[in-house]
Amino acid sequence: MEFQRYSKDEYLKLPERPGIYKFFDQSGNIIYVGKAKSLKKRVASYFTKANLDNRKTYRLVSEIQEIEFVIVSSEFDALLLENNLIKENQPRYNILLKDDKSFPSICITNERFPRIYSTRRIDHTKGEYFGPYTSVKAMNGVIDLIRKIHKIRTCKYNLSKDNIKKKKFKVCLEYHIGNCLGPCEGLQTEDDYLKDIDEAKKILKGKIGIVSRSYKEKMTEASGNLKFELAQSYKEKYDLLEKFQSRSLIVNQKITSTDVFTTTNSDNKNSQFINYMRIENGAIINSETIEVKKKIEEDDAEVFRFSIFDLRKKYGSNNPTILTNVSIEPWEDIEVIVPKIGDKKKLVELSFKNALYYKKEKLSSKSTQPNEGILLSLQEDLKLSDLPKHIECFDNSNIQGTNPVASMVCFRNGKPYKSDYRKFNIKTVTGPDDFGSMKEVVGRRYAHLKKEGISFPNLIVIDGGKGQLNAACDALKELNIYGQVPIIGIAKRLEEIYFPDDNLPIHINKKSTSLKLIQQIRDEAHRFAITFHRQKRSKESIESSLDSIKGIGASTREKIMREFGSVARLKQSSEKDLIDLVGQSKAKIIQRAIKKGVL
């Protein structure tokens, strides 16, 4: 069996999808658990030079031997799963989330005239729970919304029939300001109150379509009658309904201790890929994917059944229920279910997604041999001594000399290798000097490789004609590596290929696969440079605009740039978004600047 783990050196194989990752030391112990919007980018960040300068990160990375990951549907699910796994495993390098605090939920009590309140303690004898919520603010917004729509009591009185009949309680301030209809004095019937509770449950269960449509209609009607303040209040309630998250697959209080197993075959039927998720007390605490080699004559169901037994034994699971995507013969004391709808079905789909991804990775890793046909053609057309398995291409980008930047893209085995892409801010050149910029970035790139002892590419491609190529060659000469690496320039107009010390270009057949590869690499370098240039221009635009506003300091400016990134996005933001980000007083300053045209 082969487990879904990568060695420390294989971190670039992780997917660019949300999920959680686990680092293991030499003894197989989990030393760190983290979440990520993109698993590949987050894990790769640990191995950058900037992060390794941090003493704690350096020590953590030095102990990593293996990396395991689980794909989930969203960042929200990743956050919840990270919380579960840290509390379960108590990794040495995790400082936060080790306590016994869980994410808050909303409880609707099962007493007469039920109350609605938030809690971190789950006790199903007290009522029905909804959640959990990763944001306390979002959860409180939901509770406030329900209380604005429906008149739900906030007191803790025991509203039994006898207590109400004996007039034991008096209405409080909540009744007088219109937030409660006075069930404590019998001013509201239990049936009428329970109708509001049923509507609140629909909202908490995510069945908000009817309520949302009602708010939209009221908002449109109020706006048509020029009642803009009323329309805005309906809009805010509608936005709250749209934004809040009612529940998650990762923590679902209604799913008790359960095991989830899914399977899929390889194309040649020689392997089965099986994902296992263990759920305890409504939370996923373990997940693993394995590949089981098998003979063609072996029965798929029997191999799957044996693997289930083996994985349950490994993790010590005694869960009485198994959810799966295929029917198998059940054990005497275990219920096997193939769910058709609902949250259990969604759990099976999540497990199957992990199995499919592992299958895809395994199959692609077996077919990552170089596309030798194209590379051999390129080698022959350019008269190269070595097969160009590693190609790097440079391009500049600026507008009339402003915000000059450059890019370098890397192709390995004829395919983009994005982890080796590089962006360059031009440091030594002023004004629109493409030749000087090209010399600078080529020199910086290969001075770094030379210093670090990293091997040079098999081919360097310069986006430009003879001038840019000569500038790049000058940089290589200053480093004493000119002639060690083949270098060419490609001019856009006629797709001419220039060589150093040769004034006449060559023309490769327009239908040639080798020319198409060079064009693809050149276009990718151009796209990467343009994207970086736009980002830098937008950042400087918003920086300079914010600098002119009195009362906005450096820390506030940094927050705004990080959140919005451009003046256009800042102008489109609502006042509420700004208040949440920088506070009410600074939000008003920025709104005034926008109205005056300063921004």
Descriptive terms for the model:
44% helix; SOS response; UVR_dom_sf; 599 residues; seven-stranded mixed β-sheet; 20 helices; alpha+beta; Nucleotidyltransferase, domain 5; GIY-YIG endonuclease
Parts with pLDDT < 50 across at least 5 consecutive residues: 244-249
Head-to-tail CA distance between termini: 61 Å
What overall form do the CA principal axes indicate?
globular
Percentage of residues in helical conformation: 40-55%
Report mean pLDDT, rounded to a whole number.
Answer: 80
Largest sheet: 7 strands, mixed
Domain GIY-YIG: 16-95
Subcellular location: Cytoplasm
GO molecular function: DNA binding; excinuclease ABC activity
Protein name: UvrABC system protein C
Topology:
Blueprint: E1 2-3, E2 5-7, E3 19-24, E4 30-36, H1 39-45, H2 49-52, H3 55-63, E5 66-71, H4 75-89, E6 105-109, E7 116-119, E8 127-130, H5 136-149, H6 161-165, H7 173-176, H8 190-204, H9 209-224, H10 228-243, E9 258-265, E10 271-280, E11 283-293, H11 300-315, E12 321-324, E13 335-337, H12 342-365, H13 372-382, E14 390-399, E15 402-412, E16 415-416, E17 422-425, H14 434-452, E18 459-463, H15 466-478, E19 487-491, E20 496-498, H16 513-547, H17 554-564, H18 567-572, H19 575-582, H20 584-596
Parallel strand pairs: 9-12, 12-13, 14-18, 18-19
Antiparallel strand pairs: 1-11, 2-5, 3-4, 3-5, 6-7, 6-8, 9-10, 10-11, 14-15, 15-16, 15-17, 19-20
Helix pairs in contact: 5-10, 9-10, 13-16, 14-15, 19-20
